[in-house]
Amino acid sequence: SLLVNVNGKLFEYTLKEEISPKRIQNVEQNDMLRKVTFDADVFFNILLPPIIFHAGYCLKKRHFFRNLGSVLTYAFLGTAVSCFVIGNLMYGVVRLMKMIGQLAD
User: Of 15, 25, 73, 100, which has the most beta carbons under 10 Å away?
Assistant: First the structure.
């Protein structure tokens, strides 16, 4: 059971039973199934940003500046490694497409 407080309104979610694939005929027409189905867009666009904002807002300045070197190292090295990996993958895909004739010169 999960109890959530949103703007002074309490919502309680309780797991009644598992929905088996045999019992699902049409997801779009099953109103209850639409309500309990996980929606990634809702999570990433509505639920996750306040969590990240709260974590950053409550971060103590001394903890941040104490780890500033490692934060910057991971930022620059991660960006550089990602750039090289994605660039090489794209180069390989284009070469492969030219070899199999999907891309004209």
Answer: 73
Element (H, E) at 11: strand 9-13
- Those residues whose C-beta lies under 8 Å from the C-beta of residue 30, and which sit 6 or more positions away, are 24
Q: Is 60 helix (H, G, I), strand (E, B) or coil?
A: coil
Distance spanning both ends of the chain, measured CA to CA: 61
CB within 8 Å of 33: residues ≥ 6 apart: 19, 24, 27
The structure tokens listed for 79 are 């960006």
Determine the Cα–Cα distance for residues 52 and 18; give it in Å rounded to an integer.
31
DSSP 78: H
pLDDT tens string 28-37: 556 666 666 6
Tokens of 39: 């929606």
Residue pair 13/6 in contact by the 8 Å Cβ criterion: no
